[in-house]
Amino acid sequence: MEGTQLTPTLLAEDGVxxxxxxxxxxxxxxxxxxxxxxxxxxxxxxxxxxxxLRIVRVPETxxxxxxxxxxxxxxxxxxxGVQVEYGAKICEYPVFFGLLKAxxxxxxxxxxxxxxxxxxxxxxxxxxxxxxxxxxxxxxVVEVEKGHSAxxxxxxxxxxxxxxxxxxxxxxxxxLDVGCESLVTESDIPSMAEGKILVGGMCPTxxxxxxxxxxxxxxxxxxxxxxxVLSCYLGYDLGAAITGDEDIPLTLIITEGFxxxxxxxxxxxxxxxxxxxxxxxxxxxxxRAGAIRPEVLITEGIEVSLCLEKxxxxxxxxxxxxxxxxxxxxxxxxxxxMPEEPEAIATGAxxxxxxxRLDTGELITVPRVNxxxx
Length: 374
Known about the structure:
By secondary structure, this protein is mainly beta. The chain has 5 helices and 27 strands. Helix 3 links the parallel strand 16 and strand 17. The radius of gyration is 28 Å and the shape is elongated. It starts with 11 loop residues before the first strand and ends with a strand.
């Protein structure tokens, strides 16, 4: 009897509808309208991110009174709205019977945003940073919130990873000349990979990752990584529950986990099918509430008619699956039996299980929630 559908932990699907909300961090300008077609590298919005506000406590700094500091501002022609350069004189007041001058200099270039009449503190707003918003995926603009966001909808393939570092990038997929169960070494990385997203193997060495970045690659998608290699690549131990903002030249996406685990058959099958296509990647990961998974999206240059129509994936006898939890994590097998009644497992809990024949020939019993379709 065919079992009910279980939701896999990670997505590896083709021919699916992909929707992305592209939002500016601050109000700005959205330059597309509903119905527009966009490519994955198109700019669809812009904004100005306000610079840091530097507050200078002039009376405390110079040891003068508030009214003296206010006079000192006037002496230097400083008022709200005035542009100042780094190191420019913003306050000057004579002290010691006019023999000396107490002088305060600007700690940054920017615009005088306020001068407090109460305490003579001055606020200097540093130069704003221009921001551009890309479409990230190819498709149609289906919604627009003026000045804030746009929703892009496209059709293509998605492969999620279990962990990643580095932000959004786009590049052409290129398969490494290594097997899925092969370690990725420096010699496996092409010397010229400008704008490429390299795919394949497992457990890359630090030298391999550094060479990929040096060769111009924008991403590396592989099965697994050693924690010490990741720390060495980043230059520090990663302790945050959210990644994606790392200042690194290459986005790294791990599809299986830490240790020596081969890239999954389902993920590699999709990525190899679209070798040479432009893809969008994002290593952002959040492992707690509101989980965010790193992803590879292929929506560019794909004929809708050639896309596979998405079907509801169900488990049944004979289906090939992959185990996603220990002690058999990463191993593959075929469903031989699907008992309807819950059975006791090692923890003492009674759960619904599968009887699997592993590729090694071993017959095991595992909880249904511990597997996904291969």
